[in-house]
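task queued by scheduler; priority normal; single chain, no ligands, no partner chains; default sampling; output format set to structure tokens
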Amino acid sequence: MRMPEPDARVLASRAALLARLREAVPGGVIAEDSAMRPFETDGLTAYRQMPLVVVLPSDTQQVAAVCRIAREMGVKVVPRGAGTGLSGGALPLADGILLGLSKLNRILDIDYDNRAVTVQPGVTNLAISQAVASRGFYYAPDPSSQIACTIGGNVAENSGGVHCLKYGVTANNILGIEFVTIDGDILRLGGKHLDSEGYDLMGVLTGSEGLLGVVTEVTVRILQKPETARAVLVGFDSSEKAGDTVAAIIAAGIIPGGMEMMDKPAIHAAEDFLNAGYPLDVEALLIVELDGPAAEVDHLIAEVERIALANDAVSCRVSQSEEERLAFWAGRKAAFPAVGRISPDYMCMDGTIPRKALPIVLRRMQDFEKEYGLKIANVFHAGDGNLHPLILFDANQEGQLEAAEKVGAAILKLCVEVGGVLTGEHGVGIEKRDLMDDQFGEADLAQQMRLKCAFDPDHLLNPGKVFPQLHRCAELGKMVVHKGNLPFPDIPRF
């Protein structure tokens, strides 16, 4: 994986940089190789790089001080949350500061009247729901890693989760952001109110993968728990029939709270790991959750059962208690670590497709298995077409990592080919960086880069990620002057 060449000037000035950082963040600078080792990778552990230095600020002012030092000395900055990201977005740089935000981990305000909670970026996703559970509230986005992933990282990647089909991803559930620019300015967007007028800058920051600023505070929307929630386990003798059922449920106007799909390898791995009660004699399994008033839930469950049977479901089981419903979801949320028990290594991909293309994509992935000689276990958010194929390989076997990378690239290109996109919630990072040309044209990428330049003209924030080729900001705004004449000289200029 190619990364920017380290800047020799920055490497030579490391001692001066460390001195300034230690003054700005007392006790929060890690510079010894052995102590920096835990920060050399994120959840995409196939790629590793030691940082120049790790800095762990304790508050927003210290974050701002680090950014000012970095800007003045021309040093790159890579923001990092819990390190659970799966696209290499927090991979350090040999000539860059790794800015860890784990110490900013306080819940600052719980406002039930406005149904809002304000937190620092190091607060875990699940901690918000736990903090408001006693009053019957929760935070809707729930990534599988919610016990460990942090809100700052959720904002950076616009994370979703199993319930994002009905309740939306991070962008649909945040009200305000405080962030620090590379100049060290502290800015606020939004608040506890709903949508503001003007440009949607909060939408720009959400999902920007640390390329535009460093998030230091987030205000999220909390929801009341639904009166009733029940889940249905539906088994099929083929993944194609499960995919057809997903499309039929949505086409019937039913929007489940969550609708997840697992294929046979993932079902067996999850069941062996957690004993969730999954049927083992099926090729594919749907978990469909309906929530709302009890009468509505009962009606929708009957409709889902009818649609599933019309699509040749071979089994159908409805949760009869809250414990059983949670067990259904526990197996799904544990699917990733469960697959780790059946393969020495795996690479978790993330692409999104139109729902109608699901059967086609699943068939093509079976072809990829034969072509590359690697198994694929599928676990994904079926309701919104967000795929998470797990490519199983052994990094100790020569050529298997490279083969896994090729399978991953083939799957992502297929997603674009059928009308989808390269990522749903894991981000681009370094994993999909060199595939951006498959989805976007040169003009598209140049326009995205101009936005990056507006926030970070010197490309100091998380460079080497997302964009397959960096351009100087001046190049993107250049204008050709021919024989002293500007282009279109007849157009009035102000």
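post-processing summary
- The longest helix spans residues 400-417.
- The mean pLDDT is 94.
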